[in-house]
Amino acid sequence: MAKPVILSQHLPLRWLGVLPFFAFAFLFLILPTLYIVIGAFRTPQGGFTFDNIIGLNTPTILNAYWLSIKISFWSALLGCVIGFAMAAAITVGNTAKGLRNPLMTFSGVASNFAGVPLAFAFIATVGPAGIITLYLRTEFGINLRAYGWNLLSAWGLIVTYLFFQIPLMILIITPALDGLKREWREAAAILGATGPQYWRMIGFPILLPSILGTMALLFANAFGAVATAIALTGPQLNIAPILLFSQIRGDVLGNPNLGYALAFGMIVITGLANAVYIWLRARSERWLK
């Protein structure tokens, strides 16, 4: 009599739950990326060429990349500094314990708040006719425009990006701060180290890979953001995501394959930033285990 076939020996049922993830990742991440990479090296007739990559060496495209890099760098740097200070206050600082859960909950929501709603919120608050802008002008005679503030500019976009960059920093760096062992601080105190000496010689060196890795992640997060930039500034700000969006709409760059090359350049930059994050994150986890 033949033995019954056990299904679990031939089909690992425990993997069925993650099949939707792999399907979505392949259809909406891997497949479009491969299509863009291949299109960046093809002619409109389907042949192989490097002309699209060479075509990126134009003033408009290079300036768009450079401005995107500056905006991403400053939003990532400021997001790291402010987010680290806030995370340190609720972990190793003397801030009330009851503030941690509300801050973490808000960070989880705000880190995903972007696009048109975020742009509208900032325009309605600190835009040219925003609530705070008009209040300061009428009540205190402070004209933000006279001090150089312009929401519809590169620095206005940086400030807007901070709304989701700071919470993302808090969410990522808080577990690293929690990983600092109390024994390290106590041992440093026994040996006569002050608080600043502990952070300079022990705390920050251990957390530095996590901080730098998170900064790389925030850089990639800002570099690929397109909906917020378009909703806030429109086509007047020459950054890579807006230039690519204009290409998709057919407003500029008559060669579609040049648009693929533009997207390929963005993939390379964000990919490098994410690779740096993964590498530094792995280094920091070895210390915090």
Automatic annotation (TrEMBL):
Give the record's keywords alphabetically: Cell membrane, Membrane, Transmembrane, Transmembrane helix, Transport
| InterPro entries reported for this sequence | MetI-like, MetI-like_sf
PROSITE patterns referenced in this protein's UniProt entry, alphabetically: ABC_TM1
* Broad class of the protein's primary localization: membrane
Give compartment(s): Cell membrane
Keyword Cell membrane present in the record's keywords: the answer is yes
Keyword Acyltransferase in annotation: no
All copies of domain ABC transmembrane type-1, residue ranges:
65-277
Membrane-related topology note:
Multi-pass membrane protein
**Which residues span the membrane?**
15-38, 71-93, 113-136, 148-177, 197-219, 226-246, 258-280
Family under the similarity heading: Belongs to the binding-protein-dependent transport system permease family. CysTW subfamily.
Its recorded name reads: ABC transporter permease subunit
- Source organism per entry reads Pseudotabrizicola sediminis
